[in-house]
Amino acid sequence: MGVRDVRDSAVLIVDDEQANLDLLEACLGDEGYSRLHCVRDPREVIGAYEEHRPDIVLLDLHMPYLDGFAVMGQLLERVPAGDYLPILVLTADITPEAKRKALSGGAKDFL
Q1: For the whole prediction, is pTM greater than 0.90?
Q2: Contact 58, 35 (CB under 8 A)
Q3: pLDDT, tens digit, 9 for 90 and up, residues 64-75
Q4: DSSP letters of 7-58?
């Protein structure tokens, strides 16, 4: 049995700013990641999660309609017991409150 290359991981990127999506997609693509799925509208995240079954989610916090905290809650409700879905929060909000809320809400890291 071979070792799976981490670059084969499915990555779901959620951000309402197209420039941020383009940047992350380019950076990850340059490193060999090809299973990248971008979502601008946080209301579409659950459908994208169910369709692509990502191995990791890169999530912005401040978006219209649903903020990243609400999206994180919706995602974690759908993760089957015993499964692991790392959520990495990528945000310009560097306040201690945002970091604390994101990490206590289920994010595995905060950048």
Answers
A1: yes
A2: no
A3: 999 999 999 999
A4: GGS-EEEE-S-HHHHHHHHHHHHHTT---EEEESSGGGHHHHHHHH--SEEE
